[in-house]
Design a protein that fits this description.
By secondary structure, the chain is α/β, with parallel strands linked by helices. Helix content is about 40%, strand content about 20%.
């Protein structure tokens, strides 16, 4: 009888522990720390713009700065960056455009004279520049309907080039990146938010940046946390490290 009571007690205790751990991981876990190569990786919830270090902002292939909800939506990271950076100051806007042009002057581009709105020079995907505390990287392209898009093969190619550019630029500073690609429904509408995160982690594993020391934060917006399992992502990191 005592043995049965002890057995039942153990079952209850382990069940309670399991339930508590599940609830914590599901509703309260907001950060995991991991290592890929020499890179210290943190995946956490937060506001990209409030993070210490440099912030990665995906922009379009023209590096536009016209936030009009046509060329650039004011709800995208691209639009929020421009509005925060220049405010309502036209002089700051001119200086930003001059700095963008200066840093891209040696990058091969195509001039699209027939483009009616926005800038005319189109740069290769993953062209990347540093503006103060912000890294601007060309992610999206425009189709004939002026809709932002990127194919899945192009997205994977972008990630590969992106890490090489980050390796060139970061200079030891903390790198904060959003879950790149989730704002573009035309990449692959079947991929979940978490699966985009997985693609970013897999691409980091095969990049050159992990050969040197770097600190990378992947920032998940609070409203998207419910779409991610940080425990699962940590297990993925452990798995790829063991390959």
């Amino acid at each position: 009888m005592i043995g049965i009571i002890i057995s039942i007690s153990f079952v209850i205790i382990f069940s309670v522990i399991y339930i508590c751990e599940y609830v914590y991981n599901k509703f309260f876990l907001r950060r995991i720390n991991a290592k890929i190569g020499k890179v210290s990786l943190v995946i956490k919830s937060g506001d990209l713009f409030e993070e210490e270090g440099i912030k990665v902002i995906p922009v379009n292939e023209y590096f536009d700065t016209q936030v009009d909800n046509n060329i650039i939506s004011d709800t995208t990271l691209h639009g929020i960056f421009v509005k925060r950076y220049i405010g309502n100051n036209n002089e700051k806007l001119k200086k930003l455009n001059m700095e963008i042009s200066k840093q891209l002057k040696d990058v091969d581009c195509i001039e699209v004279k027939e483009r009616k709105r926005g800038k005319k020079k189109r740069y290769p995907i993953a062209s990347t520049i540093l503006i103060d505390d912000y890294i601007l990287t060309a992610l999206s392209k425009f189709n004939e309907k002026n809709e932002a898009y990127l194919s899945m093969p192009e997205y994977l190619e972008f990630l590969n080039k992106f890490w090489n550019e980050i390796d060139r630029i970061h200079n030891g500073r903390i790198i904060n990146i959003p879950v790149i690609g989730t704002g573009l429904a035309r990449i692959n509408p079947t991929l979940s938010y978490e699966e985009y995160l997985e693609q970013i982690i897999f691409s980091l594993k095969t990049s050159s940046i992990i050969a040197g020391e770097a600190k990378i934060n992947i920032i998940i917006s609070e409203k998207k946390m419910k779409e991610c399992s940080l425990v699962k992502l940590k297990n993925i990191v452990s798995t790829i490290n063991n390959k």
